[in-house]
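To the wet lab folks,

You asked to see what we're planning to order before we commit. Fair enough. Below is the target structure as tokens, and below that is the sequence we designed to fit it. If anything looks off to you, flag it before the synthesis order goes out.
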């Protein structure tokens, strides 16, 4: 298709099987469904957003014209899965609520016995400091953004480094690829190595300049700033208060680390004796609100849980990182039971060894089971559906973006990944008699005494969850745009 022809399309209708998790624990399966997305730049309020959903639809083109009779066929692009079979489906794009783009060169390098504070000093700070060299930052940031997209991540909340210019480079790269991103220039003016520290004044002025750059120069609504005090030990009271005020005045997101490791928690208690607990430090210095993302939050006291609930902050559960640095097991189900409503997943590269949210979802499943065994509480186990919710709509809630992303609903942006269990390089083995018939839960002619019943769609999802990787991600869209095949 020529570029000029493509430009005429002001509406895209996606057709196939749509699966999402509208609630914690439920799986919504909509077979043979048409979802219409407005791509008309002259209607900015609808651009990239889902306009209609027609279930059990036989003629998606007709459904589109019925939705809007002013649309003619030449204005509509119809997208069907490349392998239009029952083993392929559309799923909401993954949301990574905590990832250090700058640590990607260390991904998979952890040091066997490292725990948080020695790992930071030995591996992390030198790697982050090196990214002030912009050609290096360009290569690393380009790779992590394309790699997360290849793994189905449509929204990511990034930490960069203290370096302003490298943070601008990261924003440019996210914008180039079309990924939805929050860009966090790290703020740290205390208790850090002399080769990787800023003064409070430098930190605040770099942050202000980054915010100004994103608002007034880059001007891509998909790429937003996020205020990023690294964690309480590396921030002075003055720094936290100043950037907290900036976040409040400009309605910006905030991200930081909380309660990851016992040595860290003791350190915070010694550094901030005026505060009730670790969470209270962020509250005291104006950093705790409904747009705050708290990574880890493993060892919280009941008082801290109540404070987070009161302030409606979100928690980013990073199970691969927590296992790798032996930080602990975040009690996700207990926190939900205690009334915390906003919990999502973070890869936490490079304390986490994978930039795939699907891998993090599997790790969340495993960690919850270890916790259930340790505490002899089977109710602490996370199900596949619950893990997939954390990876999508749960993450959207953490980012306070659940009105816009995280599931397939009219009015939401079309942020989506097409999954295929039998894509060309797939390593998933699925046998002919296991392939479901077109109608969910009906028996097919395969069924006999000797042949088992075919899978239901929830089995197909389970197979994907445990057996898949990026080879099963066929295409990725953000705001209705295909962002995976940038160079095609
Ligand atoms: O997992 C983590 N990664 C980090 O880079 C970091 N900095 C403070 N605390 C941290 N925890
Ligand atoms: Zn982190």
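Sequence we intend to order:
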């Amino acid at each position: 298709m020529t570029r000029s022809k493509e430009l005429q399309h002001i509406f895209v209708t996606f057709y196939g099987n749509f699966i999402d998790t509208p609630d914690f624990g439920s799986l919504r399966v909509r077979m043979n469904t048409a979802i219409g997305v407005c791509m008309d730049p002259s209607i900015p309020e609808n651009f990239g957003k889902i306009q209609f959903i027609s279930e059990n639809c036989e003629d998606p083109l007709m459904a589109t014209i019925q939705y809007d009779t002013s649309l003619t066929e030449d204005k509509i692009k119809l997208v069907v899965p490349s392998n239009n079979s029952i083993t392929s489906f559309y799923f909401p794009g993954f949301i990574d609520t905590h990832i250090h783009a700058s640590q990607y060169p260390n991904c998979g390098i952890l040091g066997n016995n490292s725990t948080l504070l020695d790992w930071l000093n030995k591996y992390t700070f030198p790697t982050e400091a090196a990214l002030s060299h912009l050609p290096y930052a360009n290569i690393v940031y380009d790779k992590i953004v394309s790699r997360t997209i290849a793994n189905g991540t449509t929204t990511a909340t990034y930490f960069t480094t203290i370096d302003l210019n490298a943070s601008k480079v990261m924003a440019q790269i996210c914008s180039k690829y079309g990924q939805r991103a929050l860009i966090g220039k790290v703020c740290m003016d205390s208790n850090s190595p002399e080769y990787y520290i800023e003064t409070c004044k430098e930190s605040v002025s770099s942050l202000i300049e980054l915010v100004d750059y994103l608002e007034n120069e880059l001007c891509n609504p998909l790429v937003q700033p996020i205020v990023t005090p690294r964690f309480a030990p590396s921030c002075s009271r003055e720094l936290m208060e100043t950037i907290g005020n900036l976040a409040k005045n400009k309605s910006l997101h905030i991200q930081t680390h909380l309660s990851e490791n016992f040595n860290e928690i003791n350190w915070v208690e010694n550094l901030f004796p005026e505060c009730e607990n670790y969470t209270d430090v962020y509250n005291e210095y104006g950093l705790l609100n409904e747009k705050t993302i708290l990574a880890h939050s493993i060892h919280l006291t009941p008082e801290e849980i109540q404070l987070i609930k009161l302030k409606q902050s979100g928690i980013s559960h990073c199970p691969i990182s927590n296992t790798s640095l032996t930080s602990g097991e975040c009690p996700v189900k207990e926190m939900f039971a205690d009334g915390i409503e906003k919990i999502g997943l973070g890869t936490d590269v490079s304390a986490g060894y994978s930039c795939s949210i699907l891998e993090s979802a599997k790790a969340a499943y495993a960690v919850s089971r270890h916790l259930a065994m340790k505490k002899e509480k089977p109710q602490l186990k996370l199900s596949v559906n619950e893990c997939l919710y954390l990876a999508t709509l749960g993450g959207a809630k953490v980012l306070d973006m659940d009105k816009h992303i995280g599931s397939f609903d009219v009015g939401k942006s079309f942020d989506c990944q097409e999954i295929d269990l039998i894509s060309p390089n797939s390593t998933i083995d699925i046998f002919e008699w296991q392939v479901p018939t077109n109608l969910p839960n009906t028996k097919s002619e395969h069924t006999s005494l000797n042949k088992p019943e075919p899978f239901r769609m929830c089995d197909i999802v389970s197979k994907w969850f445990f057996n898949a990787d990026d080879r099963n991600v066929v295409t990725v869209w953000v705001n209705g745009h295909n962002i995976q095949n940038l160079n095609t």
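Structural context that might help your review: The radius of gyration is 23 Å. Confidence is low (pLDDT under 50) at residues 1-6, 439-447.

Thanks,
Computational group
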